[in-house]
Structures are given as structure tokens and as C-alpha cells.
Design goal:
9 helices, 39% helix, alpha/beta, 7-stranded mixed beta sheet, 233 residues, Rossmann fold, 7 strands
């Protein structure tokens, strides 16, 4: 892949969220032999640590080029994952198909949060768990998203801000009616100097004004807070 493409820059960011994805798999209680779904898998964010534990893993991603990157990443370690092209708002699986349904910073970019929540619950088996990570609204990730959004074309009226998934209150509203327990943890990721340019290219940022705003956020702090949620059915 061209390292100058937006997806090449996504890979830079994805590399730095590896520890968060590994922690998510641990907290969700993934075990050998479980059926695990990684939603909006990107380059295999949660799929890789889950399959390394001996789970049967399916990764779904809307962007075909990211799926190609995920395939290469998994093949490099000699493991197998079932890859499916699709998005979080309409998961192409039967109900109660998976023991664990996970997403590491991917599901949050879907437009309709209520629809995504219902789909995550639908495909998870009774007694299973849904786990995901999302940037908090007031942390570096959330501030980058909101700043970039102010310069981009408006999202459709049905769209909710991605970083709302990083709010405990929002997650309770989305999932509280479906689950028996919700566990929250706050963590942070320290992004290195490569990340500022990667985030800007991913957002499709061209103007010097917005690039300056985004860069100033990184200069304030490279530490991005995220919320980890594990919802138990």
C-alpha cells in the first residue's frame, strides 16, 4: 500500500492502539474456542489478539482496502480469520452467533448509534459480552474529531458524534435496556510524533488553518483518553 495514502496513515494510528485492543480482548474474557466478532476491524485491531488466544474470529470492515491490510497482517503470523465486508449498522450474521462482539475504535464512526447498539446485541449470544473502546469527548481523540468535523461537510441529520461512544452516560442509554451489567474503564494512549500527520491525512485535512489547529492539540498533549466498555448479556 502507498504509505502516502489516508489508509496508510490509518495503519500508523492502528499500530499505536494495539495495546488497547489487547486489553479489550482480555477484559472481555475471550477464551480458546469462542466465536468472536471484531466489528469495524480496520487492520485487524481486535481480531489479531483474539485469534492468538485460540478463538474462532470473524472480522467485518466496510473498507475493502483495510480488509486487505488485515488479511496480510493475520497471514504474517500464520493464523486465520474469516473476513467479511460490511458495516456496523447492518451486520450480515444470524442472531446470537457470537460469544464475544468487540470493536476497538471502529464502530464509533457509524452514523446511527442506536442502530449499531441494537446490532451488537442482536448477534451476541445470551450470557456473552460486548466490548469496545472509544475516544472520550474531552480527550485528545474526541477533540481531534470535533475540530476536524468543524471543517468538513456536515454529517447527515441522523448522525451522532463518534466520541459520544466514549461517554458512560451515552453508552448506558444505548445499551442499558439490553444488558445485565456494564463495566467501564478509562485508559489513555500516548501517541508518538508520527501520529499528528497521520490523523490529519486520515481526516482529509487540506487547509493550513485546520492543520494548525490539529497540530496544536497534539502539542498540548499526545495522550488520548479512551473509554473501554464491557457489556454483559
Amino acid at each position: 500500500m502507498d504509505s502516502d495514502s489516508p489508509l496508510g496513515d490509518y495503519a500508523v494510528v492502528a499500530e499505536q492502539i494495539t495495546a488497547a485492543a489487547e486489553l479489550l480482548v482480555e477484559r472481555a474474557g475471550v477464551e480458546p474456542g469462542m466465536d468472536v466478532l471484531d466489528v469495524a476491524t480496520g487492520t485487524g485491531n481486535a481480531a489479531l489478539p483474539a485469534v492468538k488466544l485460540g478463538a474462532r474470529v470473524t472480522g467485518i470492515e466496510l473498507i475493502a482496502e483495510l480488509l486487505d491490510m488485515a488479511r496480510e497482517r493475520i497471514a504474517d503470523v500464520g493464523l486465520e480469520v474469516d473476513w467479511v465486508e460490511g458495516g456496523p449498522e447492518e451486520l450480515p450474521f444470524d442472531g446470537a452467533s457470537f460469544d464475544r462482539v468487540l470493536s476497538a475504535f471502529g464502530h464509533m464512526f457509524a452514523l446511527r448509534h442506536e442502530r449499531v447498539a441494537a446490532e451488537l446485541v442482536r448477534v451476541c449470544r445470551p450470557g456473552g459480552a460486548i466490548g469496545f473502546c472509544a475516544w472520550t469527548p474531552d480527550g485528545l481523540g474526541g477533540r481531534l474529531l470535533s475540530t476536524a468535523a468543524s471543517y468538513l461537510p456536515p454529517r447527515p441529520p441522523v448522525a451522532s458524534p463518534p466520541s459520544l461512544w466514549g461517554s458512560e452516560e451515552h453508552v448506558r442509554r444505548l445499551l442499558g435496556q439490553y444488558v445485565s451489567a456494564l463495566d467501564f474503564e478509562h485508559h489513555s494512549i500516548e501517541f508518538d510524533s508520527r501520529s499528528a500527520g497521520a490523523w490529519m491525512t486520515m481526516f482529509g485535512v487540506e487547509s493550513s488553518e485546520v492543520r494548525g489547529e490539529l497540530l496544536s492539540l497534539f502539542q498540548e498533549s499526545g495522550e488520548a483518553e479512551y473509554l473501554m466498555t464491557v457489556a454483559r448479556l
